[in-house]
Amino acid sequence: MFKSMKRWWKYLTAKVNSSFNEKADPKVQLEQAIGEAQDQHRRLREQAANVIANQKQTEMRLNRQMTEYEKLTANTKQAVLMADEALNAGNTAKATEYGTAAEAFANRLIGLEHEIDETKALALQSTQASEQAKAAVSQNSAALQQKLAERQKLLSQLDQAKMQEQMNTAMASIGETVGEDVPTFNEVRDKIEARYAKAKGMSELTGESVESRMLEVESASMNMEAQARLSEIRSQLGLAPSAVDGQQLLAEAAALKPEPATEPAAEPAAQPATEPAAAPQPQDG
């Protein structure tokens, strides 16, 4: 039972992660990855700084120990000289005291030598660790710079991919159904062409109707009356009639005049026969 629950939990976790990765914005994920790399580099620098600081502290401690070692060596030598001088002067008590002091200095000197040896070994290790830390920081810095440079390339590729996807979607929407509420380009074009064709058909039917012809006749009659009135006014004013008005009146009259029915041509009438001329009569005498 527990194994089954654990297996289902892992399956659901993997499914959720897969769905999240499919829906997540790659640009945001890229920025997250770059931010995480920068955080890791910062933590690495802090650790390297601690290692280098430990090395510096070890070196400073070693320097102090070396200074103290030189001082103890000098004091030990001085105590030995003073004990020898007191012994030569016959002052046994002073010689004993200086000898004891010289022995104490020697004991401290021996202990300090052990400490110096340990500090030297620690300083060597800390120096190696410091060099390794510096190399790690340098390598990680180079890798981070490469990632930062590659980020611009990836962002450019991502923008190009988005643009191509938009173009693909736009091209697909021209000939395919996008959705229930969004008509396709072809559907809109067919609808507009059908409406235009219907309007043209209705226009042709209206133009051929009797009412349309009657309106044309009424309009032409009104134009003729207007032209006649203009001619009358021009005559009252003593102006010559306008050639344009006359031509327009003739054109409108011809348009309104019904066309004569075509009749067969009349046969020419028979010419009467020519009578012979009268003979001259003879004259008398």
List key phrases describing it:
6 helices, rod-shaped, 285 residues, disordered C terminus, mainly alpha, Helix Hairpins
Q: Would you kindly provide a written description of the structure presented here, covering whatever features stand out?
A:
With 285 residues, the chain is an all-alpha fold. The chain folds into 2 domains: 9-175, Helix Hairpins (Orthogonal Bundle); 185-256, no CATH class. 82% of the residues lie in helices and 0% in strands. Helix 2 runs antiparallel to helix 3 (92-175). Mean pLDDT is 76; it is low at 260-285.
Shape: rod-shaped
Helix-residue proportion: over 70%
Q: Report the strand count.
A: 0
Total helical segments: 6
Query: What value does the Rg take, in angstroms?
Result: 62 Å
- The residue-averaged pLDDT reads 76
The name of the CATH topology of the largest domain is Helix Hairpins
H and E order: HHHHHH
Beta-strand fraction estimate: under 5%
Task: List low-confidence stretches.
Answer: 260-285
Quick structural overview:
Helix content is 82%, strand content 0%. The protein has six helices and no strands. The longest helix has 84 residues, at 92-175.
Layout of helices and strands:
Elements: H1 2-23, H2 26-88, H3 92-175, H4 185-207, H5 210-236, H6 243-256
Helix pairs in contact: 2-3, 5-6
